[in-house]
Design a protein that fits this description.
It contains three helices and 30 strands. The chain is mainly beta. Strands 1, 2, 9, 10, 11, 12, 13 and 14 form an eight-stranded mixed β-sheet that branches.
Amino acid sequence: MKRLAFIILPAIIALGHSIRPPIIEGTEADLHEFPYQVSLQWNFNNGSRPRHICGGSIINREWILTAAHCLEEFSGNGWFEVVAGVNNIADEESGAQRRNVTRYEKHESYDTNAIRYDIGVLLLSDPLDLNQNIKTMRLAKKDTLIREKIAKFAGWGSISKTMQDIYPDKLMKVNLILRTQEDCQQMGKHVDESQICAGGYKNVTGCTADSGGPLTVTVDDEQMQIGVLSYVLVTLAALIAAKPSRPKIVGGDQAIPHEFPYQISLQWNYNNGEEDPFHFCGGSLIADRFVLTAAHCVPSEISPDGFPEAVAGEHDFSQYDAAVQRRRIAEVYVHEDYEGGVGPNDIAVFRVDQPFRLNRNVQLVKLPEPNVIPTGDCTISGWGSTSFNIFPSYPDTLMKTTIPIMDLNVCREIYAMQEVADSNICAGTMEGTSSVCSGDSGGPLVQTENEIVQVGIVSWGGVPCGGYRNPGVFVRVSYFIDWINDKINN
């Protein structure tokens, strides 16, 4: 069954004023097919190659249009750069032009929670030299009547449909269906007069890192920009390039050491012992040789060198702890009905090669009785980013937060364009402020009223994390008790 995936974009009328989103199942753009397209990059001032973070469009020789949420600085000793006339960002064409950014402005009404007026402009250090491969983009006026039903979008976002993002070096393109505001409202997404909706089928869309890129239509045989890519839904284990982004708990507090003895860190070991392993997902210890996690956390090859591990007794990544126990993942069991990406049955069990030694800091978590529907407050834990913006800030220590379970029908209204199944539960508030996000995936959602019981597994949610009407969606563990027991016992 095909499902529509929608993108919320601020319309150009707002101009009165992971990272990187992916283009899924797009095609490679022809050389200089999009001469108005630019790559917004961050120069870390350390000799490394600048990193592509967002897209943008040329609105005149000195000014670039992008999304406001792209304009968050990585560090105080770096700067933004813009590259125009480029298709391959890893091997820039000879005619490409690079400029520093001297100033940028976000729309005065930009709201990070509601994602309104997510639009900004950048002033270049020197004007671009316009030519056949570098051109300005015509902008739609407030009263422009758009009769087209199909729009074009291009970007350098991930083309992967798995947990590990795969970023193309070459510009990708995709056609998207334009939708009315009424259509988008009916699909459960709140939009106002500054936003428009566009989308394709389930695997045809734009996502994190294509942010800021232009949405265009053809008017009188000329391309016209009508939108800027803002935010979309993402699974919670979006990973960046060689070392993907970790999960995040937004608005949480630091956990007490070993407060969550059942917490597992799923890590990629780069074949260098315990030095610098990469945490990519969470999990929970349900038997001495079995870890419960999300199906989309099943590790594809993060690096040609290395292997996945389950780590128990961990609290602070920056401190060596002899009590921490590491086990190789020997076998993976994914639910037979899981179809990948954002969807139901996002559950898996990992078997490790040697049993964990249970002690004060490494313990099993209790699972619920079959088919129990949890209510009330729950606690989540993980090592994810604590940042509310697109640039993550990862803590070394385990974080925690408490959120209420949301009525499933309310959650379905919010995420009407995605399937929230009976086997899911939702948790969070309409206002946001505390949430899970990209990569706390697989971690446990527990209730602690009389005893600690795991009721959920972190699966997916909306972005920005902790934002307005963006609750987390979890696998309801009680729905899968028979399946879990079958995998453990057989």
